[in-house]
Every structure is written in C-alpha cells, then in structure tokens.
Design brief:
This protein is mainly β and 175 residues long. The protein is 7% helix and 55% strand. The protein has one helix and twelve strands. It has one helix at residues 102-114, and strands at residues 4-9, 20-28, 31-38, 41-48, 51-59, 69-74, 79-83, 89-99, 120-124, 136-144, 147-156, 161-171. It has a six-stranded antiparallel β-sheet, with no helix packed on it.
Length: 175
C-alpha cells in the first residue's frame, strides 16, 4: 500500500487522467456526481452550483495536477478528515487499511464478489498469477437528500491488504 495515496481536490479532474473500469453518473436535485472505479483505486467527482470536489485513491506519484489539492494522504493507517471546500459542500471521510492473513483475505474477497449487487460498482482486475486472488474494487453508493454517501472496498492481493473508505458529501442548506 506504500505506492498508493488518497487525495481530495477542490476541482474536477478529467476522466482522461484515469484508466476507467466502471462508471456511474448520479444526479439528485442540485448536485451531480461521477463515480468511477479506476486502475489502482477510484475517482469520484461531486458538483454543486459550480463547486467541484474530487476524491481519488490512486498510485502515488502519478501525474495528477496539484492545482486545488486539499488532502494528500499516503495509505498507511486509519485517518478521518472533514473539509469545507467553499460554497455549501461539507466533505467527511474515514480511511482504513488492514493487512490480514491469507485465509481471511480470500474470505473477504469471496464475500465482496458475492455481494456485487445492484447499487454497487464492482470490478475484478486480472490476477497477477493463476494462484492468487484477483484484486477487487467495489463502491457502494447511497443517494441522500442533501448529498451522497460512498463506501469503498479495494483488495491488494500482493500485500494481503484491504483498503476501505467511507465518505459523506453533503450540501448544507442555504442561509
């Protein structure tokens, strides 16, 4: 997981920056979101009245532009953050990474694959070899009256690591 970072930008990032594997566009009233599973993680762009917020789990050192970077966190331990990037958007996230033994890792991956149901973006990447589990990415998206809730799951078989995040993006009421 040392080669991954979690970033949040106060702007939209164009999808051409990413190798997209699954995509869903959501709209509810005054906000819209593009949720993507990308090579090595995910990218979510949330917009409301001209304000854009982008959450990215990706490879560290990849050439994303630094303009608008609000958070750049290596993936090493649990972390919680609250951001208010302007306008009426409030963003909260909790991250965790867990290394587990091989049997638990396989069980978690099997459960995630079986749970790849409606309301979830899911992608199984090619395995590094035929004996190892496939890296998996899943995003559960829940529309809320004032925003969006995201729960992500990413498996990294080479490291027997599971990355999970929970994000809440809300539009606060106008004064």
């Amino acid at each position: 997981m040392a080669d991954r970072s979690f970033q949040v930008f106060h702007r939209a990032l164009h999808p051409e920056w990413f190798a997209v594997r699954a995509h869903e566009r959501l709209e509810a009233g005054p906000w819209q979101a593009d949720v993507r599973i990308v090579e090595g993680g995910h990218a979510v762009v949330f917009g409301h009245e001209g304000v854009r917020l982008t959450e990215v789990l990706g490879v560290r050192g990849n050439a994303l532009p630094l303009e608008g970077l609000l958070l750049n966190s290596p993936i090493r331990h649990e972390r919680s953050t609250v951001l208010r990037p302007g306008g009426r958007i409030v963003y909260q996230v909790c991250l965790e990474v867990e290394q587990v033994d091989p049997e638990v890792f396989r069980h978690l991956c099997e459960e995630t694959t079986l749970d790849a149901s409606r309301g979830r973006l899911f992608h199984a990447f090619p395995a590094a070899n035929r004996m190892s589990p496939r890296p998996l990415s899943q995003i559960r998206v829940e529309r809320l009256a004032g925003g969006l809730s995201l729960q992500t799951f990413h498996s990294f078989p080479e490291e027997l690591a599971i990355f999970r995040s929970q994000s809440l993006i809300e539009v606060t009421p106008a004064d």
